[in-house]
């Protein structure tokens, strides 16, 4: 039998997982990580509260551990995330002056991307900036409220200058169902960026699903975004109760869209999950493969 990563690689895709630095010392954990996965997203270590806890004072130690591990094991890295309203230190969320906030945001992006230059396959430049209220508009956040809707464009332009070789992604949840207002809002933003030459290379669909898995329109959504000229990626996959059918439907949708370049599950074992009570992952808490593992392997074209 192969592995998730090797099977995904047969079609030029990667298969990744979220990794917390604190588990890299657990050999049962890293045994599965290095056997099965060829891409890694730091679960928390690249977020602003860890990387710049006070202004101009950067801490890359925890994320460096993860990047070193990935380098040593030939795993590609997704950088997560540069600009997000959550896990944001209060010294940032309390800024009220636009020039100050713009300078702080741009410096954060530039410094973090410079530190990892050449080591990151794709960055989630902006995470979860759209509202869940059915408006299709950006959510309230210090970035939106102080800088206006243009903050996302500013972030992507700054990111392109910082590491021109990295793919620049917009990442969000609840944008998997095509007709949802939130999906349409993000689609219009990407369409606008593409038409005006604002640098954007990919859209990440987090894909935190309930027990029934992806919506019926999931593949349509992935294909419609890809048709704008961006890659699409499944970036934080987990499915309540991990039904094999729900996982297969998710992977099949990606396999049917040529610009769907990779899939990341948000953790390895159920016990590693942020929603562990729902047993949403591909390995049980003892590290054994679950039924969904076989369904994913088959959908990736393996046996
Ligand atoms: O680091 C502290 C630790 O010192 C303390 O003892 C402990 C007590 O609760 O908390 C620790 O921080 C926690 C951190 O995870 C590290 O374990 C935070 O409380 C907790 O809120 C944080 O949760 C993370 C969550 O993002 C925060 O929003 C999850 O691990 C992480 O899986 C989750 O990931 C997000 C993606 O980044 C974006 N999309 C949604 C996804 C799931 O919420």
TrEMBL record:
Top class in the EC scheme: hydrolase
UniProt domain GH10: residue ranges: 1-299
EC nos: 3.2.1.8
GO BP annotation list: xylan catabolic process
Keyword set includes Signal: yes
Reactions performed catalytically: Endohydrolysis of (1->4)-beta-D-xylosidic linkages in xylans
Keyword Signal: yes
UniProtKB keywords: Carbohydrate metabolism, Glycosidase, Hydrolase, Polysaccharide degradation, Signal, Xylan degradation
GO molecular function: endo-1,4-beta-xylanase activity
Active site, per annotation: 236
Family affiliation: Belongs to the glycosyl hydrolase 10 (cellulase F) family.
Protein name: Beta-xylanase
Organism: Streptomyces griseofuscus
């Amino acid at each position: 039998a192969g592995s998730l990563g090797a099977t995904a690689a047969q079609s030029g895709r990667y298969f990744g997982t979220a990794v917390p630095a604190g588990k890299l010392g657990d050999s049962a954990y890293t045994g599965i990580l290095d056997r099965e996965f060829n891409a890694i997203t730091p679960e928390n270590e690249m977020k602003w509260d860890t990387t710049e806890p006070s202004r101009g004072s950067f801490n890359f130690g925890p994320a460096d551990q993860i990047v070193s591990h990935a380098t040593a094991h030939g795993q590609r890295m997704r950088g997560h995330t540069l600009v997000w309203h959550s896990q944001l230190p209060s010294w940032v969320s309390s800024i009220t002056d636009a020039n100050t906030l713009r300078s702080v945001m741009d410096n954060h992006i530039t410094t973090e991307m410079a530190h990892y230059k050449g080591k990151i396959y794709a960055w989630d430049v902006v995470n979860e900036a759209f509202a869940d209220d059915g408006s299709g508009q950006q959510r309230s956040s210090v970035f939106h409220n102080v800088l206006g809707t243009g903050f996302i464009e500013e972030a992507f332009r700054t990111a392109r200058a910082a590491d021109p070789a990295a793919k620049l992604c917009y990442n969000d949840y609840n944008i998997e169902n095509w007709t949802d207002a939130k999906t349409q809002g993000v689609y219009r933003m990407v369409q606008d960026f593409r038409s005006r030459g604002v640098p954007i290379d990919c859209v990440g669909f987090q894909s935190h699903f309930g027990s029934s898995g992806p919506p019926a329109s999931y593949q349509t959504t992935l294909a419609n975004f890809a048709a704008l000229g961006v890659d699409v990626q499944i970036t934080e996959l987990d499915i309540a109760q991990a039904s094999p059918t729900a996982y297969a439907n998710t992977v099949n949708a990606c396999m049917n869209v040529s610009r769907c370049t990779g899939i990341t599950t948000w953790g390895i074992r159920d016990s590693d999950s942020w929603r562990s009570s729902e047993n949403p992952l591909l390995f049980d808490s003892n590290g054994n493969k679950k039924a969904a593992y076989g369904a994913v392997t088959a959908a990736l074209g393996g046996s």
